[in-house]
């Protein structure tokens, strides 16, 4: 399968590394915001992976690098079966990713994306475009990455109806809450430690205010339950107001705070709710500690199916893209 | 999709019930050890479900029941796309299920089975026969039923390599251990209570001596990791020797016994090990209580992916069969 990639950051580079370990996918072009590299007879992913470790200017790569590009011309110049879109997320406009994805789907190219912007803003339309053209649109990397939320929902629950979804989907907040409990730290101190360890971002607001969880819950619901929810429909409370006393008083009752996303699909107006919830030892999420994540699907016929996954790093996110590529290879 | 079914016991009847709720699968024949019923234009699953609630002699069903049958003649008389084999398990011979499955696959009919016998004894050969004829061979219901062990391994881990497998796969023993801990009961008293509640069987040896776990681990490994392990290769210790003192002393150290199946695929001679293991609160299986089950896949690229599922009943087992049917419908 011939692959083109937009985005040569951490996840993009890790993906190139994983492609180098396989012989069933072939890398044809890689683009970033400034430059690109392409070879219809196949790039050497191992060599390119090394190159990107020290240099992001693809124009300088071997004899096949080039400067500023236009995506419609790239799609003419290089024939690929599948586009991987892995540029940074813009949650307000979804651009330039949405335009690239649309152009690929209009030109008969499957798409796999790790970019939450186009998926939270335009999932329904892009999925319909893909379906109309008999193409795959893989979004697993946008909703849990290494944790197979979408794959499990699409495959493992086949034939059962989703009634409710519960998720602990943000590793950063789970880690901060873990520190607050186990090391008796204030929210600010725990956040700072998580930032020093490279787990929380410099601007952590998306995570700690609950929006990352809300985005993932919305994406999962729209992909699996046929809803057409927007992020604005969600009711979101983060963890920034929690005090050491809150955590201690929960612990005294053998409970633990988790930033939980919930969605009752049988409600009159299904709505994603995100808030810190005290869970007891009987709750499946009680033991999901540290940077770990999990999703629970409550179904009519299969009962409760819960998937727990390890912390996501760029390798896990890249492996989630590979999974989507191989599922499209298998299903189309 | 036109379906034939062998086996009209609890799971078979529940499957007929679920087929009655769908319009994408059509029931053509149902057979049991004494009699059968068939209609090429489709049986009424709702009516048949009701009938089987009171009467197992299918010869008496409407005008389309018949007596003793031969399977090769059935395959001539009724055209189906897929056979569901759901007769009782015989783990020594795998018969008559293995012969029925082979005959179906030789005649271009997909197979889904809930019968552990043919799968533990002949998986490799039957899978190769299915592959050669471009057919599906679904075995999810034999290895966890509602818990999607096989589906998750085949779909959610695509592109990653399995390194180790750990599983708490037997609900009955998990429930007995739960009773021993929470109600401070002896093994014998807990077993008796589980039997009274219809959770443990009259002859509980397959469960409590660990063989059910060993069978599931072996099936999962052979299906997902390309091994060709036999049940005799497994090293199996059950829970019958555990005392109240064992359980209490574990609890004093905040640990809990689980009947754990383990397989290290990177070992020189990979071998299924089943034994009661004391797990701490840090272990993902610590919180898998009561009749619940779980499987953990340790992979190279996706890290650890754990699937936890509710207790299996006949409806869950039937839903697992439906899942396999729909996956074959999707993939072939």
Key attributes of the depicted protein:
homodimer, 332 residues, alpha/beta, Rossmann fold, Dihydrodipicolinate Reductase, domain 2, 7-stranded mixed sheet, 12 helices
Descriptive notes:
2 copies of one chain form a homodimer. Chain A has 12 helices and 13 strands. With 332 residues, chain A is α/β, with parallel strands linked by helices. Chain A folds into 2 domains: 2-146 and 314-331, Rossmann fold (3-Layer(aba) Sandwich), CATH 3.40.50.720; 151-309, Dihydrodipicolinate Reductase, domain 2 (2-Layer Sandwich). Chain A has a 7-stranded mixed β-sheet, with helices on both faces. In chain A, strands 9-11-10-8-12-13 form a 6-stranded mixed β-sheet. In chain A, helix 1 packs across helix 12, helix 5 (116-132) packs parallel to helix 10 and helix 7 crosses helix 8. Chain A is globular. The N and C termini of chain A lie close together (12 Å). Strand 13 of chain A pairs antiparallel with strand 13 (304-309) of chain B, so a sheet runs across the interface.
For this structure, the CATH topology of the largest domain in chain A is Rossmann fold
Number of strands of chain A: 13
**Residue share in β-strands of chain A:** 15-25%
How do the strands line up in the largest sheet of chain A?
A: 4-3-2-1-5-6-7
Total individual domains of chain A: 2
Distance between the termini of chain A: 12 Å
Which pair of chains has the greatest number of interface residues, and how are they split between the two chains? A-B, 43 and 43 residues
Q: What would you say the CATH architecture of the largest domain in chain A is?
A: 3-Layer(aba) Sandwich
Secondary-structure content class of chain A = alpha/beta
Spatial extent as radius of gyration of chain A: 21 Å
Instruction: Quickly name the level 1 CATH class of the largest domain in chain A.
Output: Alpha Beta
Largest sheet of chain A: 7 strands, mixed
Shape, principal axes of CA atoms of chain A = globular
Number of helices of chain A: 12
SSE order of chain A, as H and E?
Answer: EHEEHEHEHEHEHEHHHHEHEEEEH
The CATH superfamily of the largest domain in chain A is known as NAD(P)-binding Rossmann-like Domain
Q: What portion of residues of chain A is helical?
A: 25-40%
Task: Note poorly predicted spans of chain A.
Answer: none
Mean pLDDT of chain A: 96
Identify the quaternary structure here.
homodimer
